[in-house]
Automatic annotation (TrEMBL):
Keywords: NAD, NADP, Oxidoreductase, Pyridine nucleotide biosynthesis
Name of the featured protein: L-aspartate dehydrogenase
Lineage of producing organism: Bacteria, Pseudomonadati, Pseudomonadota, Alphaproteobacteria, Rhodobacterales
Keyword Mitochondrion found: no
InterPro entries named among the record's database cross-references: Asp/hSer_DH_NAD-bd (IPR005106), Asp_DH (IPR002811), Asp_DH_prok (IPR020626), L-Asp_DH (IPR011182), NAD(P)-bd_dom_sf (IPR036291)
Aspartate dehydrogenase domain span: 166-252
Note: The iminoaspartate product is unstable in aqueous solution and can decompose to oxaloacetate and ammonia.
Family: Belongs to the L-aspartate dehydrogenase family.
Active-site residues from the entry: 218
NCBIfam families, sorted: PRK13303.1-3, PRK13303.1-4
Length: 266
């Protein structure tokens, strides 16, 4: 399998290092022209070719493309890739909190007869969430706890002094759409839950900075007429990016390992 990759930061580089567990035999990675990724990359289980334009990536004819470069990359690259017939795994799920972009992605997939795949990321239980949402209304409350350094560079810095915390502080309380759009590097889990059936506006979200946190904790409660459950996941932060859980990389790896292209009937 030939894997296309958009971005080569902490997620992309970690993912490439694990591809020996999959059927991937080559990677073409799209990075910014000034990126130092080619210099940072060391030989791994599969060869990596770096390109600097979408046209070059499409010309390489990857079997599937993984986006792991943020909301702006989803907006810039997912629609044209989908429209050209490429299946795309979207790691930056929170980008789809933008309702207009979500519709654009859906239309592009329809036009290209392709699929956009949303990995579970750092969360679990989405299959049950989808089943409950299909059967009726669900009420979902999510609480995300990360160490202060994971919130650096985010709007949390305007609410609380992250360098002076001595106890947990809830700096955001609102709905899922506001959380996903305001914290694009931290709240992809919120979008994954919302898209699985919780709904962006209906979902209640709290975001917390905790100086005692050793990793990233995701906890959510689901109430429906048919089932009630609570799930809490404590994940190790990525060595290169405290905002991202290692489980995010593993969930993308699983999507690659189980990927099957759509077979044409003609």
């Amino acid at each position: 399998m030939h894997l296309g990759l958009i971005g080569f930061g902490s997620i992309g580089s970690a993912l490439v290092g694990m591809l020996g567990q999959t059927q991937v035999t080559q990677v073409t990675a799209l990075v910014r022209p000034a990126s130092d990724a080619p210099q940072r990359h060391s030989a791994g289980p599969v060869p990596v070719a770096f390109v600097s334009s979408l046209d070059e990536l499409i010309a390489a004819r990857p079997d599937i493309v993984v986006e792991c470069a943020g909301h702006a990359a989803v907006a810039a690259y997912a629609p044209p890739l989908l429209q050209s017939g490429h299946d795309v795994i979207i790691a930056s799920v929170g980008a789809l909190a933008d309702a207009a972009l979500q519709k654009q992605v859906e239309r592009a997939a329809g036009a290209g007869k392709s699929r956009f795949i949303l990995p579970s990321g750092a969360i679990g239980g989405l299959d049950l969430m989808r089943a409950l949402a299909a059967a009726g209304d669900v009420d979902v409350a999510y609480r995300g706890i990360k160490p202060p350094k994971a919130w650096q560079g985010s709007p949390a810095e305007q609410v609380v002094d992250l360098n002076a915390l001595s106890r947990p502080v809830t700096f955001f309380s609102g709905n899922g759409r506001d959380a996903a759009l305001a914290y694009p590097k931290n709240a992809n889990v919120v979008a994954a839950l919302a898209l699985a059936g919780a709904g962006f506006e209906q979902m209640r979200v709290e975001l917390v900075a905790d100086p005692a946190a050793q990793g990233n904790q995701h906890s959510y409660q689901v109430h429906s007429p048919f089932c009630k459950y609570t799930m809490t996941i404590e994940a190790t932060g990525s060595p290169g990016n405290a905002r991202t859980s290692v489980t995010t990389v593993l969930s993308i790896l699983q999507e690659i390992a189980t990927y099957q292209p759509i077979q044409s009937s003609t």
